[in-house]
Every structure is written in C-alpha cells, then in structure tokens.
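ugh ok fine here u go
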Amino acid sequence: MSPGGRIGQFTQATWRTVTQQRASQELQALLDAAVDAIVVIDHLGSIQSFNRAAERIFGYQDEEVIGRNVRVLMPEEDADTHDDHLARFAASRVPHIIGKGREVKAKRKGGTEFPALLSVGAVPGAEPPRFVGFLQDVSERHRSDAESHRLQERLMHVSRLATVGEMASGIAHELNQPLAAIATYAHACDRLLGAPNPQIEEVQDALRQIADQAVRAGDIIRKLRTLARTEETSRAPCDVNEVIGELTELIRSDARSHGVEYRHELTPDLPRVVLDKSQIQQVVMNLVRNALEALALAQLDVAEILIRTVCTPEGNVQISVCDNGPGVDARIVQRIFDPFCSTKPTGTGLGLPISRTIVRTHGGALDYQPNAPAGACFVVSLPSTRADQT
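structure:
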C-alpha cells in the first residue's frame, strides 16, 4: 500500500474517532440538559450512564453508581422484581414494562424513598440489550395533591356545618314538640300521684309517653350530629334508598317548620352504589336547603319538595330533588355551579359547587333541569355496581 493510502486510512480513522467523540459529547450534553433523571443500564442491570438530573434527584455522583447494579436506586422489595423483568426480556424479547409509564418507589443515596414516574425503553439494535430509564420525582405533586385533598375535606365539613346551622331553627321548632309533650306528661304524673287514690295504670301510660317522646327527641339530635360530624372518607356498597331514608326525619322536620310538604318516591330494589354515605347525604341536604329557601320566596298555597330515586336504562342510580317553586333564573342557569354564584343575600355560593365536586369524585354527575310544570329539579347520577359489571 502506498504511503498516500495509509495516510488516507489514518485520516479517515482519526476523523471517525473525532466524530464519535463529538457525537458522544453532544449526547452527554443533551442528557445533562434534561430535567428528568436518565439512567442507562445493560442487560444485567449495571448502570452505564447517569445524567445530571439523576445526580440531583438521587444524590449520587455518576462515578459513585457507574458500574453498580441499578438495584441501588430501588427499595429492596422492588429490586428482585426488576431483576425478573430483565431476565424475562432477555429470554423472550417480549416487553412487559418497556414503553409503559408507571409510578414506582425510588430510593435516594441516604435511603429515603420517594414516589417517581418511570418509563423504560430498549435501545434499538443493541445486543446484548440495553435499556434507558426516564424518571421524574413526583414527591411535590403528591404533597400538593394531599394538601388539596385536606383543604377539600375541610371545605366540605364547613359546608356541612353551614347546612346544619341553616336547619337549626327548624330543628329547634321540631324538638319543642316532644319536649313540650314530656313536660305535659310529667305534670300529669305529678297530678295523678297526688290524688287520694292514684290510678297507677294512668301514671304508667304517661311515663311510657314520656319515654317515647324522649326517644323521638334524641333520635332527631342523633341524626343531626351524624350529619355534622367529621368522618374519615369511607366508601362501601350502599342502598341509596336507605341513605335517603336516614334523612327523612331531618328533612320532614325542616320542611314542616317552613310550611313545606315533603314527599319521596323511592324505587325499590335499586342496584347498590359504592359511595361515602355522609358525603352523599350532605349533597342531598344541600339541595333540600336550596329548595326550601327558593320556596320561601315563592308565596305558594301548597309548597312541596319531592325526592325521587330511579334506575336508568344504563343501570345508574339517580336521585332527584325537585320543588314547585320559581325555578332558577334563566340569567344565571349557566353559572349556578360556579363558585360564589348565589342569588341569596347572605349566601356563599359554595353549596352547589361543593355538591358537584362530591358527586364527581364518586364518578357521577350533578345537573339542573327545570321542573314541570314549575320549579327546579337537581339530579344526582351515580354509577352502580351493576353498571360497572356491564
């Protein structure tokens, strides 16, 4: 070979080396510019590349982890599973977690675990296979979600207390009846026992009446306290008719004190719904209170609230709270579920937005429709366990 040929080959080889080095430097610059951790491993799980974001997130310098098994970045309980995934892919070349984003637990240098979003890809044409992992620390998002959930729970509780407060005058009026009856029967017992020949049977009957009235008053107070108390979120399959039935005494008492007739039409044998009972009861009471306030302005001879339950053809359960009042003003009907939208001088405008939020967290919907021939109707639709199975 001529000297010129050898020089040409040397030049080409040198140029390839320079080009490869430059490409490697550019690739490293791209990796280091990424905001997510990027970790490259071989088919045995040995770390081959570790970018700047990975150093920041995990707390390791690249020289501390290069050549080590990627298990160092995982909790112990996940490490064995990861090894199984690698071995299975090496044997079958069938991807199971490759190309799929998922949330995992990762481990920092000091042993602290944190939630992370991970996606893994295989390097095309690499043999033996190599893998690239993209990892995003989602700890802050988890904290934000948790704080948002706590704020929402507190707001719901405040709304529930506001509803109970609005009911207080009606419930107080309702409680006066059994308390007055207890006082009357007690005076009767005193009079009967003071007679020369007291009739024991009459005294016993009066005492029984006192006991019955005391139970009635206690039952009203117990249901009011149940509605007002803060409870841990707990969902279970429930009969919606039973959930509404537990509110009957409170609704009837509140309606009676406002001169409103309360009726319900509950379809029997409804499919069960997975729900938080206290939250759905709060929604129903919010809608009832709105109806009572609307009816108070209507000046009707016969004011009425109707709660109806039905099962839709799709298998969902609907709860409708309807009244025969003036209905919702057409000028605000598109905004009634917006926060702070209220037609009441002292209203907060949060009852309906909170109610819709509760229903949506149950996978359902809360909508408004005019009642026929007059009034408003709010409809809660909830997915049933039967609908989930279809």
